[in-house]
Amino acid sequence: MKTFVPHQRLIRGFTLIELMVVIAIIGVLAAIAYPSYQEHVRSAKRADAQTALMELAQFMERYYTSNGRYVDAAGDGPDLPFTEAPRDGASKSYDLSLAGATASSYTLQAVPKASMTNDECGTLTLANTGAKGQDAEATASKCWKK
Q: To bridge 84 with a disulfide, which of 63, 92, 131, 145 should be the other Cys (CB 3.0-4.6 Å)?
């Protein structure tokens, strides 16, 4: 036998307060997660530039093996096979160049552009000795993951 309670309400859905609490929690989580995501994207783009510098270093070593020096008779370095990183895709984050070359040494550099212009590592460099560098206040261990 059912008893009828005249003032009993059926609960349907959420109250405005509950909805606002959920939105606030999502906002806090997003505020924490988004900067972390952005740093991960910057780190991935930096890794692409480092990979490209390593590939260009191998190109320079092959050039040296074939010619006995890193520059031609006029003192000019060879034309690099590619000058932007990443090599694939439409969005390029770094300009690659031969910053300096002599008969016995070279320095390659990756200059940030587009979304990477404010990257804390700045311009990345790689020398024929394997020396890795950056021109910003960040440490080599952060920029090159040593």
A: 92
